[in-house]
Hints:
Layout: E1 4-8, E2 13-20, E3 23-26, E4 36-37, E5 40-42, E6 48-50, H1 52-56, E7 65-66, E8 78-81, E9 84-87, H2 88-107, E10 113-118, H3 124-136, E11 140-146, H4 147-158, E12 163-170, E13 175-182, E14 186-195, H5 200-219, H6 227-243, E15 249-260, E16 263-272, H7 273-285, H8 288-298, E17 307-311, H9 318-328, H10 341-354, E18 376-378, E19 385-389, E20 393-398, E21 406-412, E22 421-428, E23 438-446, E24 458-464, E25 470-476, E26 482-486, H11 495-539, H12 545-564, H13 572-588
Parallel strand pairs: 1-10, 10-11, 12-17, 14-18
Antiparallel strand pairs: 1-2, 2-3, 2-4, 5-6, 5-7, 8-9, 12-13, 13-14, 15-16, 19-20, 19-22, 21-24, 22-23, 24-25, 25-26
Amino acid sequence: MSKVIGIDLGTTNSCVSVVENGEPIIINNPNGGRTTPSIVAFTKKGERLVGEPAKRQAVTNPDGTIHSVKRHMGTDWSVRMEGKEYKAQTISAMILMQLKKDAEDFLGETVDSAVITVPAYFNDVQRQATKDAGRIAGLNVKRIINEPTSAALSYGLNHGEPQKVMVYDLGGGTFDVSIIEIGEGVIEVLATAGDNHLGGDDFDERVANWIVRQCREKQNVDVSRDFAAMQRIKEAAEQAKKELSTAETTRVLLPYLTQKNGEPVHLDVVLSRAEFDRMVSDLIERTAGPVQNALSDAGIAPSELGRVLLVGGSTRIIAVKNKVRQLTGKDPSHNINPDECVAKGAAILGDTLSGNTLTTRENTSAANTGPGQGLLLLDVIPLSLSIETVGGVATRLVERNTTLPVHYSRIFSTAAPYQTSVDIHVLQGERPMARDNKQIGKFRLKGIRRAQAGVPQIEVTFDIDTNGILKVSAKDLDTGKEQSITIMADDRMSESEIEQAIRDAREYAGQDNLRKEAMELSSEAQSLVAKTQQALKNAGKNIDKGVKKQVKADSKQLERLLAKFRLDRVTKEDMDRIEEAKNRLESSAASIL
């Protein structure tokens, strides 16, 4: 059985891990990095770049570079590249394909299964979108697991003493806080809360805005509409934020940032940690509410916490650590790497699942073997689930922080006489009125027997699996008519779209290999032409005229083919012609090379 990898699909950076010899290890990317930037780029040459290569060219290709796509998961966002529309799932799949390839290169075998993490506060549509992205990337997604739960799983592997821990997860684009109880072989999520639009990107934006203001004040230049300049500013902002986690001040030096009246504009300013703390204080304060809500929902006081675990790169910010200390009265633990623990926890779960060692409430007799031996993993749903009833009321069926998996049924009836159908509107959120919550799905139950209002009995059932993905069914108990759906909101990809994306991904993988081979062949051919021309020049008259004529003819033919060569439109036939011409030139010029 092939390995099951663990993937932390992050907003800013992603990470992949696998269990080897009973220990989770991080898989480096081709550049040697332990995390991979969650960036995808489409170049003018027709290449698609992922990770470090995409990040490096972002300044010169801002329009073709996509950042922070995770923030768009489960929405109707799309981007047009190469004359084609790409949804967030498809862009995310490109990142997952790269992580899959890195794992395969490391392991020396095919990888087809993964556990992928998501923010605890991701709703059903966002979770399904993540699963769809994995499927497009050619992965069987064994489990979707909440990031804080995964971090606790990583921590609990080596710190198994019974205790309650808080996982404070501030990543690139999302914030989650979970209260988790770790017992002997049991990891149970007691409560979770968070904010899907709060993270390191927001801190970077504050610093970037400050740099723009400095440029306006010191150089009297507005660079906010200069795409290339803004890309450099964003990168400088992220770097400044990181440096201020260890230094009291940081220097932002941006030579040749833009031009004014034909003259280059340079920027050289110093940002202090005190100034940075002031500009992001409201963002950090926004984490207080979810922390307090999670503690309240779990029914515990901060003093009852055994540990506070910091997860996500943004928790390295000194002001964030101070806020956590203020909220909990505890010094955050430094026992785990905030960038890597989520991927490691996912790998542990993946290894456990592949060996059937994870005990569940349906299977408590699983063998206690492997690194996750004897684990009982109990996660929760992050938001309450309701259906819309008479008067636009959100009638709650499943409360937030209910332990997964969930099966819940409730009887409803018709609101008007002689109704033969009812619309089931499925909602997610905490507000009492339907309009104030997110509608994540809808369907119609037809064939109800005509009767007075309130007579028909319609059983609505919610089933939520261990991935937190919801199935809803409605059944007329009189006629037996039933209708059910796995939530398919308007902003989810349809089955046909997913299948097409899978075909496109396979086609792209083939094109990618073809382009790589074409680039190598083109480079070799150009080098041969240059060497041949230099050899002809060196030989002078000491070469047979017939040979010289043939070499020049073969060289020109290869040059003509190379002049027509276009990487974005290359075909196997083009490569065959170049290969043939290259071989002819090598043969005719053998005597002078």
